[in-house]
TrEMBL record:
Heme recorded as keyword: yes
Provenance organism: Rhizobium paknamense
UniProt-listed InterPro entries: Cyt_c/b562, Cyt_c_II, Cyt_c_prime, Cyt_c_prime_subgr
Annotated protein name in UniProt: Cytochrome c556
Source organism superkingdom: Bacteria
Signal peptide from the UniProt entry: 1-25
Amino acid sequence: MRFKGTMLAVAGLCLGIGMASMAGAADEPQVVRAGLMKKAGGALGQLAAIAKGEKPYDAAVVKTSLTTLQDVAKAFPEQFPKGSETGFNTEASPKIWENMDDFKAHAKKLETAAATQLASMPADQAGVGAALKSIGGTCGECHQLYRLKR
């Protein structure tokens, strides 16, 4: 009985340490920026589904998606402090830290593109397609320069 209790205590301790390290990792800039990219990808996916006619036009979805893209672009550059160049399977190119001002300018360009589309609010499937083309090009430019190919 004593052995079983000891093993349960050890298992609980290991589980607690594992959960604590996972919680700590969630605050790491590499993890935060991966989460932001996932949010942006989800928003772009929603817009693409409408643009392709896979989902009907929905103004609320368009507004939420564009707002998400604007918010992600605004927050993203702050997630690249020195020391976060590697780790956590980051896809960030070292070029970011070599050209931080240009990288931030690309993020600002995405923020502005999303804000512009949000202000004019695409009113139909064709409008969403045009907005997606504008925003997608901005994303692609940045990925070409500052994302590692895996």
